[in-house]
Amino acid sequence: MSCLPSPLRSVWRVLANLGLYSLYGLCGLATAQSLPPAVEAALLRANLPRDAVTLLVVDAEGRQPPRLSHRTSVPVNPASVMKLVTTYAALDLLGPAFSWRTPVYIEGAVRDGTLYGNLYIRGLGDPKLVTERLWLLLRRVQGLGVRQIAGDIVLDRSAFELADTDPGSFDGEPLRPYNVAPDALLLSFKSVTMTFVPDRSIRTAQVQFEPTLAGVDMQTSVPLSNGNGDCGDYRAALKADFSDPTRIRFNGSYPAACAEKAWSVAYADPKSFATRAVEGLWRGMGGQLGGTVREGRVPTLGTGNGNGNGAGPDLLPEPVFEISSAPLAEIIRDINKYSNNVMAQQLFLTLSLAAPAPNGSRPAAGGPARATAEASRAVLRRWWLDRFGPEDVPVVDNGSGLSRQTLISAQGLGRMLQTAYRSPLMPDLMASLPLNGVDGTLRNRRTLPGSAHLKTGSLRDVTALAGYVHGASGRRYVLVAIANHPAAEAARPVFDALLEWTVRDR
Is 44 exposed, middle or buried (0-12, 13-18, 19+ CB in 10 A)? Predict the structure, then answer.
């Protein structure tokens, strides 16, 4: 099946032989294409109009006309499928081996186990600075012979210049970890994970908290409920109270039928999370602190380039050590497989912190560069124009797709996925996508397991799916399916029918 009428197919073949795969422009001239019968029937069952969906199935190599092209030039909200643009742009601009540094500075002398001065930790946007890695950072501080800090531990978050936001402004769910705002020093996703371990012999569930937050009273046990039914909605049964940032309480009980469960919530006072987490971990490791944990800036050496003329940015001293994140190729697996919004936004902001400038230069390593959302949008737009030209330029908000402003057309996204497929970065991008019926956000999708690597997206009024499908013939396809409609959730069976039709291409 093709979107091209016969007179245009010969024109397309000429362009294909020249390596010019501008098939979407030609498809815009084609007559309206009928949908596969199974897809049409699924739309009817879902009670969705045809103009609620945009659908594209095209050869990944770009050497054949599209098998299906329906409303592909219309800009639509892709939800988390937008992460495909962010992660591929980052792979292309930063390289798959790129990693984030978190430098540590010491001000003052260390004598007899005491640092007579301040310890500084500077965040540079690491998307996955979780508790285990923060522990290793502080353990390295202790490895310098520091057991007591006479001054303060100062957290430098200045690398990201961001306006304060209300975590509940998007959907009224401020305690959902997916609503956590980005941060130059993002520790443990600003979230607390509570693990409930039932002990039926004493009718109690122990509660373990990760990380431990200084100054927060955390209830460490909760009674088990009576009855031997199923586990049910254990979160509702706990009647948790997170309203006071200085205490976490449970006014209910833990169902006796439940096994061990873990529940993560965004901390109620995100501004104080980092200071509380660092102090709690430092003291938990046996470290002593004469001052406080506070926000601040690493003291600079002066202005200019060290020559006193005031030209250029202030320079930072050399850190005593720094820790590095996993490489970008590994980080984007968390972003795409599990649709991690804050990690995607961290990566998006990193584009204006670390991506090369148009002249090929990179930001100075010693200067206090700052990332902004506006600057990152400009970097991504410039990258799109350089790689794909002025057609189908996406409207980017925060890089994660957790937005009502983000827009992209299926043909634009399809063209990008074709380019990625033909690039040396294809294995890294494809490996980051959920494998249908196997892992990530597609683990429970049972339509032809293992047949496709696809990114999912879901918002109120939006359902989306895009990536690569492995046809039974051995050919690989790019698939883009997006529904924008008040009943978009009902489009999932439609997309399953489209996937099955794409796979059975013999």
Answer: exposed
pLDDT, average across residues 69-78: 97
Helix axes 328-337, 341-354, angle to 10 degrees: 140
Structure token pair of residue 491: 């489009």
Give the three-state DSSP class for 146. coil
Torsional class of 342: left (φ above 0), alpha (ψ -120 to 50), beta (otherwise): alpha
Distance CA 184, CA 104 (A): 14
Distance CA 425, CA 414 (A): 16
The amino acid at residue 506 is R
- For tokens 């039932």, what's the residue? 198
Q: Whole-prediction pTM value?
A: 0.90
Q: 303 pLDDT band (50/70/90 cuts)?
A: low
Instruction: Give me the CATH code for the 6-79+403-503 domain, please.
Output: 3.40.710.10
Best CATH choice for the domain 101-166+271-324 from the list 3.40.190.10, 3.40.50.300, 2.60.40.10, 3.50.80.20: 3.50.80.20
Domain range summary for the chain, segments of one domain joined by +: 6-79+403-503, 101-166+271-324, 192-267
